[in-house]
UniProtKB/TrEMBL annotation:
<dbReference type="InterPro" id="IPR005471">
    <property type="entry name" value="Tscrpt_reg_IclR_N"/>
</dbReference>
<dbReference type="GO" id="GO:0003700">
    <property type="term" value="F:DNA-binding transcription factor activity"/>
</dbReference>
<dbReference type="Pfam" id="PF09339">
    <property type="entry name" value="HTH_IclR"/>
</dbReference>
<keyword id="KW-0238">DNA-binding</keyword>
<keyword id="KW-0805">Transcription regulation</keyword>
<dbReference type="InterPro" id="IPR011991">
    <property type="entry name" value="ArsR-like_HTH"/>
</dbReference>
<protein>
    <submittedName>
        <fullName>IclR family transcriptional regulator</fullName>
    </submittedName>
</protein>
<dbReference type="GO" id="GO:0045892">
    <property type="term" value="P:negative regulation of DNA-templated transcription"/>
</dbReference>
<dbReference type="InterPro" id="IPR036388">
    <property type="entry name" value="WH-like_DNA-bd_sf"/>
</dbReference>
<feature type="domain" description="HTH iclR-type">
    <location>
        <begin position="23"/>
        <end position="85"/>
    </location>
</feature>
<dbReference type="InterPro" id="IPR029016">
    <property type="entry name" value="GAF-like_dom_sf"/>
</dbReference>
<dbReference type="InterPro" id="IPR036390">
    <property type="entry name" value="WH_DNA-bd_sf"/>
</dbReference>
<dbReference type="InterPro" id="IPR014757">
    <property type="entry name" value="Tscrpt_reg_IclR_C"/>
</dbReference>
<feature type="domain" description="IclR-ED">
    <location>
        <begin position="86"/>
        <end position="274"/>
    </location>
</feature>
<dbReference type="InterPro" id="IPR050707">
    <property type="entry name" value="HTH_MetabolicPath_Reg"/>
</dbReference>
<keyword id="KW-0804">Transcription</keyword>
<feature type="region of interest" description="Disordered">
    <location>
        <begin position="1"/>
        <end position="21"/>
    </location>
</feature>
Amino acid sequence: MTAEPSAVDVPAASEAAPAKADVPAARHTLQILTHLAAQRGPVPASTIAQTLGLPRSTVYRLLGVLTALGFVLHFPEARRYGIGLAAFELSSGFARQEPLARLGRPILASLVDKIGESAHLAVLHGRDVIYLVEERAPRRPSLVTDVGVRLPSHLTASGRALLATLPLAQVRALFPDRSAFVQRDGTPVPGSVTSYRELSRLLAEVRAQGYAAEDGDVTQGLASVAVAVRDHSGWPAAGIAVTFARSSVPPERWPELAAAVEHAAAELGRRISGRTG
C-alpha cells in the first residue's frame, strides 16, 4: 500500500517548479476560458482554435472536459460554446472575498483625502449593487451605502456606471419589464427611471460623458458620481463612486470629481489585473 505523503514531502515554495515551467494542457485550458470570458456571446470551436492558434482536436477535447465540469456551456443547435456557470462562480467568488476590498480600500482612502468627500466601492449582483468598501470623509454624514448593503443598480451611480458597460442584451435581460424598476417594497422611486427605454437613454448618456451620476435617487439632498473599474479583459469588476451634498457641489463641478474617480478606478483596474500604476 502506498504511504500517504507527509508534510515534509510537500516542497516548499522555494522548491516549487519555476514559474516559467510550461504545462500545455493547463495553459490551453486557461486560454480557452479567458477567450470565452471576453466574448459578448457564444462562439464556434473553430473560431476559438483559429484565434488562439490551437489544433482543433485539442480545442474540442478541452471543451468537452470543460463542458462536463460546468465551466463551458455547449449550444448544440448553434454549434457554439460560451462561458459556463462554474466559471461565473469563480468570478463571483472573487467579488465576494477579501482581495477586491483589500485592494480597493487604500485607493478609496487616497481618493477621499484628495477630494474631501465620502467614497465607496460596489459590485454588480443581478439587478442590485452590493457595497464592499466605504470610506467616509471627515465631518460628512453617514450614508445608506454601508458595507454589505444592497441597492437597486438603476438607482445608484455605481450601478449605472456598471450597467453602461454591459452588452445591451444583458441589460435587457436584467430589466425585462417595469416590475424590475421598483424598490424592495415594490414601490417606484418618484422621478427615477421606470422603464427600459428610460434606462437605455440614461446609460447612453453615461457612456457619452464617461461617468455616471445620480441626484437624490438614493438619498434626498445627496448626489453621487461613479466610474466602472474594468479588469484585464475590459469587463466591469466594480464601481467606484463619491457621494456629496448636492447643495455644496453644483453640477458644473461633477466632471472634476468624476476625473478623480476615474483615476482611482483605473488604478484599481491595474491592480486587480496584476499591474501597478
